[in-house]
Automatic annotation (TrEMBL):
Belongs to the heat shock protein 90 family. GO terms for cellular component: cytoplasm. NCBIfam families: PRK05218.1. CDD domains: HATPase_Hsp90-like (cd16927). Residues 29-186 form the Histidine kinase/HSP90-like ATPase domain. Its main location: cytoplasm. This is Chaperone protein HtpG. Homodimer. One of its GO terms (molecular function) is ATP hydrolysis activity. It is found in: Cytoplasm. It comes from Buchnera aphidicola (Hyadaphis tataricae). Residues 337-552 are annotated as: B. The gene is htpG. Residues 553-624 are annotated as: C.
Length: 624
């Protein structure tokens, strides 16, 4: 026996804020509420199909899956119903009273800040149900979970003003029925032609029929009319699908209102039989850097929906790729646990990774402008590739883009192939420098020789760059070389020979002895260099030691870092060095040498352990 039990609940605080914004701030493109409700209904039907694989009784003798829309102009109500999985009482409270998804506050802030794109954010953040309140004074939801007794239905009602009511009801059919009590000014959504246009615009590729109730004036009877194509677009021949249909399907699949940059649709037969439809978005998702970022492909097995965000088919560095895979080889009862370590999954991942990289390679060759849009959005993510995917290192390397010393722009546009093609005669290595910022890299004293010799240097200033360069060893047979580390090839370009003490002027030999004695074990070595043109001195990392940027990464991650000891190189041609050579006062001499070392360390590291002492020393020497 079903006891009618009504309880009042208060919305989660984030939902209250959200509803307030929905009701009072969203006026443009109100029609998206119908797109969201149909999308939710489609998901509920997909979930039923999946659950029924192991429990066919969930169909309750009704296999004709569909979404129905009906209007009542007299009562000013619009009803959207489905015969999908439905919800239990607790699920109704959990799903409609709270927003469990992380990032809700970020969404609300985005909603406040973005005037023109508010409606686009709704689908992106998965809070589409609440868009009902844009057009409704009141919303009621009647639902029953598939397989449960008809007396175990639930009625959820709210006017969107802070609370909602939940009542036990009897509901004969499984699934969910949403009734919108429309505001007086929103009665356009009671017109059949208006609903048809919206469904055609947003929901044509929903894989289940969307039917609208019509009235036959002659026969005086109601009938249902299907108003969407209800065909799985990916199963159609590519030649029969227009570009606009691919774009519309992408928007339906991802809730992204931007068009994709490019896509790849493939039917594969043989040992592996599958269909893949992969898209490269135009804009990065708001949470692409979050640890709980929901990425991955939508998985179907033999046209049956299995799961969203299946991460097993693409490596993490390609997490921006959107789309789906429909496999004939996997079992229908596949789970995330079965997918992991599965040989078929492994082979599909290899194939889809290769296809994704080929799609990007083609984009880079077909349209530099579009590829630059991609790189500006996702380049940092792709830079994870060399560490993660050694098998595809060459393909990934070809897709990388860099800023460089010969371009007066921080924009990363230079490919490695173009760099190698333009190397000067006798150049055997690809030179680069890592720094905290583009400005810091561009103005590094390490560049002086390279600018003089017209040798291009890659300027790397993203946090991931230093890590990436540990795995990016060579390209086209040319090894990578950091110009902030000791290397014999740099000596070759500086026209230096191995300088011996006996080759130096006597005053320079004495100068070096005094500097080494004063600095002691503060540095690894003190040397003369002729590769500086405007700077008196510089510090270098030993070729076998950790770089400054890598030490910063370890430190930022909370890991202990071994003490770095630099090679201190001095430019004997610089006027300041010549002046210091002539100083007889030992105290003054030591102060100048310490100041020069601190200057070089500041230029290299961007900070000093005791900046106040450095400033005091500099001020004191200026006064003298």
């Amino acid at each position: 026996m079903n006891i009618k039990k009504t309880e009042m609940y208060t919305f989660q605080s984030e939902v209250k804020q959200l509803l307030h914004l929905m009701i009072h701030s969203l006026y443009s493109n109100k029609e998206i509420f119908l797109r969201e409700l149909i999308s939710n209904a489609s998901d509920a039907i997909d979930k039923l199909r999946f659950a029924a694989i192991s429990s066919s009784d969930l169909y309750e003798n009704e296999n004709d899956l569909n979404i129905q829309i009906s209007v009542n102009k007299a009562q000013k109500t619009l009803i959207i119903s489905d015969n999908g999985i439905g919800m239990t009482r607790q699920e109704t409270i959990d799903n409609l009273g709270t927003i469990a998804k992380s990032g809700t506050k970020a969404f609300i802030n985005s909603l406040k800040e973005q005037t023109n794109k508010k409606n686009e954010l709704i689908g992106e953040f998965g809070v589409g149900f609440y868009s009902s309140f844009i057009v409704s004074d009141k919303v009621s939801v009647r639902t029953r979970f598939a397989g449960h007794d008809p007396t175990e239905g639930t009625l959820w009602e709210s006017s969107g003003k802070g609370e909602y009511h939940v009542t036990n009801i009897t509901k004969k059919n499984r699934g969910t029925e949403i009734t919108l009590f429309l505001k007086k000014e929103e009665e356009e959504f009671l017109e059949t032609w208006r609903i048809k246009n919206i469904v055609s615009k947003y929901s044509d590729h929903i894989t289940v029929p969307v039917n609208i109730q019509n009235y036959d004036e002659e026969k005086k009877t109601y009938f249902w009319e299907q108003i969407n194509k209800a065909k799985a677009l990916w199963t159609l021949k590519k030649s029969s699908i227009t570009h606009d249909e691919y774009k519309d399907f992408y928007k339906h699949l991802t809730n992204d209102q931007n068009n994709p940059l490019v896509w790849s649709h493939n039917h594969v037969e043989g040992n592996l039989e599958y269909i893949s439809l992969l898209y490269i978005p135009e804009k990065a998702a708001w949470d692409i850097w979050n640890r709980d970022n929901k990425h991955g492909l939508k998985l179907y097995v033999k046209r049956v929906y299995i799961m969203d965000n299946s991460q097993e088919f693409l490596p993490n560095y390609l997490r921006f790729v959107r789309g789906l895979i429909d496999s004939n080889n996997l079992p229908l009862n596949v789970s995330r646990e079965i997918l992991q370590g599965n040989a078929i999954t492994h082979n599909l991942k290899k194939a889809l990774t290769k296809r994704s990289l080929n799609m990007l390679d083609k984009l880079s060759r077909d349209s530099q402008e579009k590829y630059q849009i991609f790189w500006n959005q996702f380049g940092i993510v792709l830079k994870e590739g060399p560490a993660e995917d050694h098998d595809n290192l060459k393909k990934i390397s070809n897709l990388l883009r860099f800023a460089c010393s010969q371009n007066n722009s921080s924009e990363q546009t230079l490919s490695l192939q173009k760099y190698v093609d333009n190397m000067i005669e006798k150049q055997e290595k690809i030179y680069y420098i890592t720094a905290d910022s583009y400005i810091s890299a561009k103005n590094s004293p390490h560049l002086e020789l390279f600018n003089k010799k017209n040798i291009n240097v890659l300027l790397l200033s993203d946090r991931i760059d230093e890590w990436m360069m540990n795995y990016l060893i060579e390209f086209e047979g040319k090894k990578f070389q950091s110009i902030s580390k000791e290397d014999s090839s740099i000596q070759t370009f500086s026209e230096e020979k191995k300088i011996k003490n006996t080759d130096l002027p006597k005053n320079i030999i004495e100068f070096l002895k005094k500097v080494k004695k004063h600095l002691g074990n503060q540095v690894k070595d003190v040397r003369i260099t002729y590769r500086l043109t405007e700077t008196p001195c510089v510090v270098l990392s030993d070729s076998n030691e950790m770089t400054t940027q890598m030490a910063k990464l370890f430190s930022a991650a909370g890991q202990s870092v071994p003490e770095l000891k630099y090679i201190f190189e001095i430019n004997p041609e610089h006027a300041l060095i010549k002046k210091i050579c002539s100083i007889q006062n030992e105290t003054q001499f030591k102060e100048w040498i310490t100041l020069l070392l601190e200057q070089a360390l500041l230029s290299e590291k961007g900070s000093l352990e005791n900046p106040h002492q450095f400033i005091a020393r500099m001020n004191n020497l200026l006064l003298q």
